[in-house]
Design brief:
Layout lengths: L1 H7 L2 E7 L6 H9 L7 E7 L6 H11 L3 E3 L8 H11 L4 E4 L5 E2 L4 H11 L3 E12 L4 E3 L3 H4 L8 H5 L11 E3 H7 L12 H8 L4 E14 L10 H21 L8 H8 L1 H10 L3 H10 L5 H5 L3 H14 L1
Parallel strand pairs: 1-2, 1-4, 2-3, 6-9
Antiparallel strand pairs: 4-8, 5-9, 6-7, 6-8
Helix pairs in contact: 12-13
């Protein structure tokens, strides 16, 4: 009977969490509140945090027999944690709900699985999302008009070029394709998990977009643009560079990896914005000289007065 139940398991929801005790309860509640016609499981990878997240997850697991908390003898990192969760999951599809996000649409799971069942050519689908600004509590609702065109189909080149920005917690992924093609044993040093997964999956099937909001994505916690340690940002992008180089090695048909283009577009501009966040005009001037985007932020970094003016505008916009 147990084997039969495993065969019928349709969705594994992967929840990767680390030091998120203030949010993890809401995350799990929203998954448990999904209205579906089939069994699902929640696979939690609590990555050896130092707060009370693990205790909360274990309590939920004792109360719900479809929740598993994976044992973590050591910290695996974001991508390594995700890779292990997927490999230990059992559902036909994998969905993601990061430990600080939540699904506000109780039909999300049913809707996306119905779509994937009807479209076997698809390896993944994703939806729109609302944005919750953590510092103000304000929710910015999803707008299909503001979102604009979203690439669909066999879109590997668009994904690796950064033209597709699917929110991880909106994804529904075909697990069989992941297990067959995604080299999870290489994931440990990666700084993220969703982007390389989509790059790889998009070589083997279509990715489609459903223009409805299902997820609320939190912004305003510790991030690249508010870290005071610029070296941390440099290390992040160095890992991103290595990850991107690996994608080009996997798929030579993508062409040659442009090292200079990568750092010009993906390092100096984030560093510049971090300098604005940290009120560091001296560093902003240096980063602006190397930033190829030449947007208003770059131009305003030239003088102390324009730097201060743009910083005020930037803070208000956030």
């Amino acid at each position: 009977m147990k084997k039969e139940q495993e065969k019928e398991l349709m969705v594994s929801v992967v929840v990767c969490t680390y030091n998120q005790e203030q949010w993890i309860g809401k995350t799990l509640d929203c998954i448990l509140a999904q209205e579906t016609e089939y069994p699902s499981e929640i696979v939690i990878g609590e990555d050896k945090g130092t707060d009370g997240t693990l205790a909360i997850c274990q309590k939920y697991a004792t109360e719900h027999d479809n929740i598993r908390v994976l044992d973590r003898p050591k910290n695996l990192g974001l991508a390594g944690n995700f890779a292990d969760c997927v490999q230990q999951s059992k559902g036909k599809y994998v969905m993601i709900c990061d430990g600080d996000d939540f699904w506000q649409n109780p039909q999300k799971m049913q809707m996306q699985v119905d779509f994937m069942e009807a479209h076997p050519e698809c390896v993944a689908c994703h939806t729109g999302s609302d944005t919750l600004r953590e510092n103000t509590g304000k929710i910015i609702p999803y707008s299909a008009e503001r979102k604009g065109y979203v690439p669909e189909g066999m879109i590997q080149k668009e994904i690796i070029a950064g033209k597709e920005n699917a929110v991880a917690s909106t994804l529904c992924l075909r697990r069989e394709t992941m297990i067959e093609h995604v080299p999870f044993d290489k994931y440990a040093p990666f700084p993220c998990n969703d982007w390389p997964t989509l790059v790889i999956l998009s070589a083997y099937g279509e990715i489609r977009y459903l223009p409805v909001s299902t997820t609320t994505y939190r912004v305003g916690q510790t991030s690249l643009t508010n870290l005071k340690n610029y070296d941390s940002i440099r290390r992040f992008w160095a890992k991103s560079k290595a990850m991107t180089e690996y994608m080009y090695e996997l798929f030579p048909e993508l062409g040659e990896f442009k090292d200079g283009f990568y750092f010009d577009n993906y390092v100096y501009h984030p560093l510049l914005m971090a300098a604005y966040s940290n009120d560091d005009w001296k560093s902003a001037k240096e980063f602006a000289k190397k930033d190829p985007k030449k947007k208003l932020a770059t131009l305003c970094a030239k003088t102390w007065l324009t730097f201060k003016m743009y910083r005020l505008i930037y803070k208000l916009r956030k």
